[in-house]
Amino acid sequence: MNEIKNALTDYAEIFTSGESDVLRELREHCNEHYADRSMLSGFFQGRVLSMFSHMIRPNVVLEIGTYLGYSSLCLAEGLAEDGKVITLDIQKETNRVAKSFIGRTEHADRIDLRIGNALEVIPTLDETFDLVYIDADKPNYSNYYNLVFDRVRPGGFIIADNVLWSGRVLDDEKDEDTQALHDYNKMVLADGRVENVLLPIRDGLMVARKR
User: Fold this and answer.
1) Is the pLDDT of residue 4 over 90?
2) What is the DSSP string of the chain?
3) Which domains does the chain have, with CATH numbers?
4) Nearest Cα residue to 64 out of 41, 89, 85
C-alpha cells in the first residue's frame, strides 16, 4: 500500500497527540514481524479514528476486520461510559495477537473479539450500531455496507478504509479489489440516505453519516 505521504503529512503527524505505549508497541511489533504490515492502521489514521470515536461517543461500534487490534483499541478510546466494540475477523493467528495486546489495556473488557465470516456473523447480532468501521476483504465492502445499514442508528456513521487503494481507483483498467472499492465509493455517493466525505488520509477513508 502506498500511503499519502509528503512533507505536509509528516508535519501533521508531528503536531498530532501521541498514541498509548501499548499501541506504539503493537505498531512496532507489526512492523517487525508481519509482511502485510500495511494492513495495520498507521499512527495518524489511528489518531483520526480515536478522535472520531471521541466525537461520536458511541455505545456500540462494529468493526469488520480486526487484524492485530490496533484500530479496535483506537475506536475503544472514545466509547460512551458503557460502550463496547464488537470486532470481527476470520484469522485466528492474528486474532490471538490482538487479544494479547488488548488484554493489557483498560479497554480489554469493552472489546469483544469474534472469529467468523462477517457476512454470517452480522445477521446474528442484536445491537444497533453507532459506528461501523469496514476494513476487511475489499470485494465485500458493498455487501457489508448493505448488511449493516438498517442496523445503524439515524445519525450514525459507516467508515470504510482503503477506498483510494494506493491511487489505483484512478486506473482505467481495474483489478477485482480496485473495482470493488471504486464501486463502493460510487454507491455511497449515490445513496440519498447518507451524507458522505472521502478523506484523503493514508489510503483513504470514506465517512458516511446516516441521515
Assistant:
1) no
2) -----SHHHHHHHHTSPPPPHHHHHHHHHHHHH-TTGGGS--HHHHHHHHHHHHHH--SEEEEE--TTSHHHHHHHTT--TT-EEEEEES-HHHHHHHHHHHTTSTTGGGEEEEES-HHHHGGG--PPEEEEEE-S-GGGHHHHHHHHGGGEEEEEEEEEE-SSGGGGGG-SS--HHHHHHHHHHHHHHH-TTEEEEEE-STT-EEEEEE-
3) 7-210 (3.40.50.150)
4) 89
Residue whose cell numbers read 478522535? 51
- Total Cβ atoms within 10 A of residue 93: 7
For the chain, percent of residues with pLDDT exceeding 90 = 97
**What value does the mean pLDDT take over residues 106-131?**
98
Average pLDDT (165-170) is 96
Closest by Cα among 207, 209, 202 to 4: 202
Which three cell numbers mark 188? 455511497
Answer yes or no: is pLDDT of 173 > 70: yes
